[in-house]
């Protein structure tokens, strides 16, 4: 029985990994649900945001023995690399400005992070991810140390980000200027309203680069398995056996679904397989 093609679109789930420091996590009076990555997830349909961030982390990689170097001295880059993501959003640099690192050190560290993410994503997940660089928002207090930090942010960090974006073919969000009401009283950390502004700017950048629009794909299958396809699919899966089927690579699982007319939505490999199993009515559990 031929399936009827519908001229509709299905939004695939996109995983966004956020690399950052204390500005991307809860703390200083900000709850986790109010951080900008979580607010971004509520603003953008069809996305899942996973945060790989911790207070004190640096972008700079000169010298290599910096204790909080994001590239080589923390486990957070490793976690990001091992998370299959379509987009990596990087907001680092506040601690580099505070600790007085040079522009060259920031460029070196950010370049290494971006190249590592791209290289590992292509090697492990067979995809080229989009990288978005987000400037750290302005330091608020216009006197004393905060005024000096703001000058360093503008003179060193922003040019470093622009150099890396041009060199590594990354998207870059616009400069984010917050008011005192959007910041914690230390002039650095965010309140909920400040986090919302950052989330909105990241969403604007993603929309501008058509990241989510490019994930809209025509759906050429109906959502219900036909009786004939159901019988064929069930028989083929049972002949194959649970252990073999549950350990098939993603390409083989998709080929099986296409061959037997079983529609499924995008997501992780396990989610796709579970969707196919559910549509077949099989009572199989994941093999871990």
Which CATH architecture of the largest domain? 3-Layer(aba) Sandwich
* Total strands: 7
Radius of gyration: 22 Å
- Structural shape: elongated
CATH superfamily of the largest domain: SGNH hydrolase
Average pLDDT, rounded to a whole number, is 83
Concise synopsis of the structure shown:
With 288 residues, the protein is α/β, with parallel strands linked by helices.
Strand-helix topology:
Blueprint: E1 8-11, E2 14-20, H1 36-43, E3 47-53, H2 76-81, E4 87-91, H3 94-99, H4 103-125, E5 130-133, H5 144-168, E6 171-172, H6 192-208, E7 216-219, H7 227-240, H8 242-246, H9 250-259, H10 269-280
Parallel strand pairs: 2-3, 2-4, 4-5, 5-6
Antiparallel strand pairs: 1-7
Structural notes for this entry:
This protein is an alpha/beta fold. It has 2 domains: 9-214, SGNH hydrolase (Rossmann fold), CATH 3.40.50.1110; 221-280, no CATH class. It is 44% helix and 11% strand. The chain contains 10 helices and 7 strands. α5 links the parallel β5 and β6 (171-172). The longest helix has 25 residues, at 144-168. Residues 1-11 and 212-222 have low confidence and may be disordered.
Summary tags:
about 45% helix; 7 strands; two-stranded antiparallel sheet; about 290 residues; alpha/beta; elongated; 2 domains
């Amino acid at each position: 029985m031929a399936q009827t093609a519908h001229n509709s679109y299905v939004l695939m789930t996109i995983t966004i990994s956020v690399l950052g420091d204390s500005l991307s996590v809860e703390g200083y009076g900000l709850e986790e649900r109010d951080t900008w990555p979580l607010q971004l997830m509520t603003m953008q349909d069809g996305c899942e945001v996973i945060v790989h961030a911790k207070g004190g982390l640096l972008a700079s990689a000169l010298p290599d023995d910096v204790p909080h170097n994001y590239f080589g001295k923390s486990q957070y880059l490793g976690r990001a690399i091992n998370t299959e993501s379509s987009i990596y959003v990087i907001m680092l640099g506040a601690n580099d400005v505070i600790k007085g690192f040079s522009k060259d050190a920031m460029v070196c560290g950010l370049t290494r992070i971006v190249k590592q993410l791209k290289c590992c994503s292509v090697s492990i997940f067979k995809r080229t991810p989009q990288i978005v660089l987000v400037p750290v928002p302005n330091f608020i207090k216009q006197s004393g140390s905060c005024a000096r930090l703001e000058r360093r942010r503008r003179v060193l960090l922003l040019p470093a980000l622009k150099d890396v974006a041009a060199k590594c073919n990354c998207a870059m969000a616009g400069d984010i200027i917050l008011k005192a009401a959007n910041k914690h009283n230390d002039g650095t950390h965010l309140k909920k309203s400040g986090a919302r502004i950052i989330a909105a700017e990241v969403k604007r950048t993603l929309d501008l680069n058509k990241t989510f629009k490019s994930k809209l794909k025509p759906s050429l299958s109906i959502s219900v398995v036909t009786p004939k396809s159901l019988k064929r699919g069930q028989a083929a899966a049972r002949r194959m056996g649970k252990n073999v089927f549950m350990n098939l690579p993603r390409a083989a699982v998709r080929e099986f679904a296409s061959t037997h007319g079983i529609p499924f939505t995008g997501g992780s490999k396990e989610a796709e397989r579970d969707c196919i199993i559910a549509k077949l009515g099989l009572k199989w559990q994941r093999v871990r």
